[in-house]
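#onboarding

Welcome to the new folks! Below is a worked example of what a typical request in this channel looks like: someone posts a single protein sequence, and someone else replies with the predicted structure as tokens. Don't worry about understanding the tokens yet, we'll cover that in week two.

Example request:
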Amino acid sequence: MSAAMSAAMTPIDETRVWLERAVIGLNLCPFAKAVHGKGQIRWVQSDATEPVALLKQLVQELQLLAQADADEVDTTLIVHPQVLQDFFDFNDFLGVAEDTLADLGLEGVLQIASFHPDFQFADAKPDDMGNCTNRSPYPTLHLLREDSIDRAVQAFPEAETIYERNIATLKALGLEGWQRLLKP
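Example response:
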């Protein structure tokens, strides 16, 4: 998507387009529409060029989100276009991120979801459309409140079927449809 977007668009702009057209537009996450509509998403573009700098910023953002009023900031997206471009390096970093969450005593309070342009499920081929459920324009760490997830799951009947429904939606859309969806 990045190459197709206007040069004037920032990584945050491109990620918002992805959120609005794919995540919300295809209803890949039925919980995203409400927080987006209420302006409760904190958007952060990291300038980190090394994983250690991103980790430092992640710590700051985890602490900020844990202390913030949920009515003001319910979730945070850290878009980091200059670091962890390789999916396998990104995936390795997620282990460090989870350890950091635990070290901060925030397990059970917050969780980290991950999105990457080259995201690939362990049991999937690289071109499997199911991978698109977690593909974003740039590597992105999504910080979520456990309480918000619990409330959303309770409000959504059969939440466990979301993943299967998303795979079916993306396979029906196909690669060409996915690419058209994300064009400016």
